[in-house]
Design goal:
By secondary structure, the chain is of the alpha/beta class. The chain has helices at 5-19, 45-73, 85-88, 94-114, 131-134, 140-151, 160-172; strands at 24-27, 76-81, 118-125, 181-184. It has a four-stranded parallel sheet, sandwiched between helices. Helix 2 (45-73) packs parallel to helix 4. The protein is globular.
Length: 195
């Protein structure tokens, strides 16, 4: 549970005990709630705190647990899984989009603080047709997918592999990239499909 600092310290220690070093960190744990943005009574302070604990504090605690080992090794790479919701202010709830916006700001702050030894970037997916998303009941999944694919210039939603490939690029290439919020959304920010 990345919202528990002791758990973050324990997983970093386990990696160091097994391999003697930490080179890479992917902060991929996340949570959400589904509340219409216009439903201001649908979210309470505790809802924000729960989402922030996992989506923002968790990545911070994991960075804090691993960066010293990366600095000792002289290099490291961190990738945070954020969301297009943190850039566009949309998504499953206001608490979710606010937490991902905060994660984007955390990404930038960590990138500035720990360069040049450690690079810190975020991947900001749009709609991803994951097993989790497909697990919702009814025809809503198909409707959301069709609407998204009809609105994006590339005409398709993202796959989990699209996101994994982008994360692997940031982890494994020597490209001088840090503080980047890499959007992988099939072009939803462009505002509509080409005629």
């Amino acid at each position: 549970d990345v919202s528990v600092d002791a758990d973050c310290q324990a997983i970093a220690k386990a990696a160091l005990d097994k391999w003697g070093r930490i080179d890479l960190l992917v902060n991929n744990a996340g949570t959400t709630m589904f509340v219409e943005h216009t439903d201001l009574d649908g979210l309470q302070m505790e809802d924000f705190q729960k989402l922030y604990a996992t989506n923002v504090v968790g990545p911070y605690q994991m960075a804090r647990a691993t960066i010293p080992a990366m600095q000792k090794a002289g290099a490291g790479r961190i990738v945070n899984t954020s969301s297009i919701a943190g850039i566009m202010g949309n998504g499953s709830s206001l608490a979710y989009s606010a937490s991902k916006g905060a994660l984007n700001a955390l990404t930038l702050g960590l990138a500035r603080a720990f360069a040049p030894e450690v690079t810190v970037n975020a991947v900001c997916p749009g709609l991803v047709m994951s097993d989790w998303f497909r697990g919702f009941e009814g025809d809503q999944v198909d409707k959301v997918q069709a609407a998204y694919e009809g609105a994006v210039p590339l005409g398709r939603a993202c796959s989990p592999e699209d996101i994994a490939d982008t994360i692997m690029y940031l982890l494994t290439t020597g490209a001088p990239v840090t503080g980047e919020l890499m959007v992988v959304d099939a072009g939803i920010r462009l505002g509509g499909a080409s005629p």
